[in-house]
Amino acid sequence: MGIAYQNLRISFSPYFPPAEFAPASGCKLTAKLQFPIMISSNCRSKDFESSRYRVRNFSLMLQYMVPENDGNGDEKFKSFGNWIRGSRLLFTGGSSSWWNLDEHKKVEIGAVKPVTVYLALSRMWKLVWDSNRWVLLVAFGALAMAAIAEISMPNILAESIFSASRGKTVVFARKIQLLVILSFTSGICSGLRSGCFGVANIILVKHLRELLYSAILFQDISFFDKEAVGNLTSRLGADCQQLAHVIGNNINLITRNALQAAGALANLLTLSWPLAISTLVICSVLSAIFLLYSRYVMRTAKLTREFAACADEVARESFTLLKTIKIYGTERKEVGRYNQWLDKLAFINTRESVAYGLWNMSFSTLYRSTQVFAVVLGGISILGGQTSAEQLTKYVLYCEWLIYATWRITDNLSSLLYSIAASETVFQLMDLLPSEQFLSKGVKLQELTGHIQFVNVSFHYHQRDMLLEHINITIRTNEVVALVGPSGCGKSTLVNLLLRLYEPTNGQIFIDGTPLRELDIRWLREKIGYVGQEPNLLHMDIKSNIRYGCPVDTTQEDIELAAKQACAHEFISSFPNGYDTIVDDNLLSGGQKQRIAIARAILRNPAILIFDEATSALDSESEHYVKDAISALKDNQCGQKTVIVIAHRLSTIVAADKIFVMDRGQVIETGNHEELLCKDGYYARLVKVHNNVFTSVCSEQLD
Ligand SMILES: Nc1ncnc2c1ncn2[C@@H]1O[C@H](COP(=O)(O)OP(=O)(O)OP(=O)(O)O)[C@@H](O)[C@H]1O
After folding, report:
1. What is the per-residue pLDDT for 389?
2. Which has fewest Cβ within 10 Å: 160, 264, 331, 491?
3. What is the ipTM of this complex?
């Protein structure tokens, strides 16, 4: 990997730190830099040295690099200069570097095994054939009929003209009749062919998207740590759409033109084999040029998709974080970040267009020269008395057909190759096996009481240092426990392991005495209620949001009861549409979203309830209510629960039966509030700091 930007000043956006950047792990970036990177002041240089940031994906890192002078006039001059330099290279023999795409290979995302045309086509074919073979059979039947009708026409056309010139009225009338029948046959069959291939295409794209989407969704969460969301949506959207052309246009037109070319060649051979062979030579030259062109197209297509995906990812990220961008006034920086990928896209597309122009130039020249060639050779033959004018006319017509068909075949082949290149990543993703969690059939216990044990559990994220070390904790049935500790000490990670979003690197987790790995994951998750740090609601009505993922049927009363317990009923009822109000980003405050998420967790009536800083986005009053809701759930009407709360707010955790104090991935203290205060250790210090802050805030308010 290397960076080939000449004299480019690069800065890292402070709002999107390169979360995994460090030359240390696996990617010796600094050793290969061709030019020094100047890091601007908005990025602390220690971040680069720190082992916190490692290169996980070089291309991801590139997305965070922003040319410092983006958007100003200087840059426009520079890019204009680049264009001039580019054109000079193209036309002055320095073209090899102008055409060179190798440099850009370095930013391709994830090495993908190339897919052969045969493999890709057979997979696509199978997708359509398995679900609706009749469409394909009718399409190919109609295609063959139309091609036969069309290819017979030049012959009959010439015969009817020459029969008229010879005054043979009966022959002329018969030929015209035949021409009319052929015209109708060709028209009807062409319509049927296009329609059926169009339907086949729709079936193909639907299946591709369906399979791809489900293959992605069934991956482990660690898969999403490595893949950018923009890339995945790009595969689902643009790449699948690109494949939409394969059957409907490419295969359809290639087959039709191949049949027509074969028919034309057969007719040419019967008319005059020397002339036919000379046309074939021209067609072969065309094919050879096309082969060169197509190889280039395959490479540009791949890069185009990768860069478009990166641009999508930047746009997606910007739109998601729009508020942050507005507040920090980084619109121009974001435009620069986006532009960076657009420039790369333009670079590739310009070369692709020039290559297409050169290909078209070669084709047009050879096509026209064939006509001239045919007339010259044919004329000589007529003058020598070896060929008749009728034969020459037929020859010129079929010659045109052959060359035209060759052109259409190559043109569609290039588009087909473009699509096949898009299929590589799509198929690679589709071939990913679902997470092992979903494949193995685990144990379903008769009842889940919520007794949890972490036995010597250690864990680290992919390519990161060990985060949790030798965790040994026991949470008894119906206990309310709190996890406390400084930010980043691994509290949420501990919960992630309990939810089996990640597997421990060492040690085991037991639930009701059964190893977590052996339990049926769906069954287990049905029994767990989870309220995350950032409550994510879906774009649907509030009722459906509360009911989301609930394993049992629920009534409106159940939903309202859960909302009441989560202190959400009042504000929901205040909306004109009440529980039918559609949730969108601006409608609800952070606290309101969290209360809906709490209601969702309560409605499931889970055996284990997890609140990951569930109170962080709540105002004091709501926090008080939610605390009450948690206590109510603890000694609850509908069966007792084990409750795990991760909270920074002291008030939320004081009432817990047991508090686990964590620091740097280890549990350093255990006990209830009073016990821990008596220990006068880390927890006691935390409480003191909290009280001091609280007292100073109160006295400031009193002043
Ligand atoms: N998916 C991930 N991939 C890599 N590292 C991660 C991932 N999720 C979290 N981390 C890292 O693990 C460490 C612990 O994160 P975790 O969210 O468990 O901390 P926490 O104690 O819950 O912090 P907070 O109280 O701020 O939420 C952090 O340094 C974080 O950067």
Report:
1. 81
2. 331
3. 0.96
